[in-house]
Amino acid sequence: MKKTYLPRRNALLTVRELSWGARAVLLVCAVALVRFALPNVFMQIAAPFLGVSASVARASHAVINSFSSTAEQAAENERLREENVALVAENARLTKQSSQSVVETNVSTTGASRGVVAQVVARPPVGPYDTLVLDQGQSAGVSDGMEVFSSGGVPLGVVTGTTSDFSRAVLFSSPDVQTAGWAGERSVPVTITGRGGGVLVAVLPRSANIMVGDFIYVPGPGMLPIGVVARVDGDATSPAVTLRIRPLSNLFSLGSVELRTTGVGQSVEFASSTAP
């Protein structure tokens, strides 16, 4: 009787398994040989990729940190803007003083004194346009007629009403409010008229030769910059031009102001007729 032979099932390795094992042994030997012959080759290969990864991580971390707080970023931008406004106003004031006599300069600087610092409770567009409600009143020494300045020292308006703990200030840009001042390097007398929403205008003879970029000043003491000429309107045949004035301070982002008694008798006067 013929016997049937079956494959041994207890064989440890098949031919295919032996070939894969041999390949693995050869790969390990090859890696070991390369590492022995060139010990830093793998690090040299990986170094560029590791450097790129580290750079991306640093850049991502910097971006995340810089925008970690939207409120902090906005506050920082506003602080830098206020510092820039203060520098522009101070530069304009010093430029004007340099063109005056020593006596005028002394008068303009000795009158400046610290006043009452007040936080803005309501401002445009939350409160009435071109009006500020402040958190200091009669108990802090605030009285009608005190002039209002931004944190950068730019004149804004005049206190027109007070209570024990609060006060109200009308800004120079309030509709039809008229303020006496000067325009340009030659200090041409001008009447500044508010148009609301932070807009100021003034009408001057064309012969005054006031140009875009010239500063507009008001008493403060001395001559303090309030804005800059943004546009000059007028027909070529007209003897007068209208100055469109951009305030130096952003009225819509005021956080605090300073109230001072300047001694110049600044008051709010309303125009009887509307200028162009």
Automatic annotation (TrEMBL):
GO biological processes: regulation of cell shape
Coiled coil residues, start to end: none
Segments crossing the lipid bilayer: 20-38
Gene Ontology CC: one annotated term: plasma membrane
Pfam family, one: MreC
Domain Rod shape-determining protein MreC beta-barrel core, residue spans: 120-257
Keywords from the UniProt entry: Cell shape, Membrane, Transmembrane, Transmembrane helix
Domain of life: Bacteria
InterPro entries: Cell/Rod_1, Cell/Rod_MreC_2, MreC, MreC_beta-barrel_core
Family under the similarity heading: Belongs to the MreC family.
Entry protein name: Cell shape-determining protein MreC
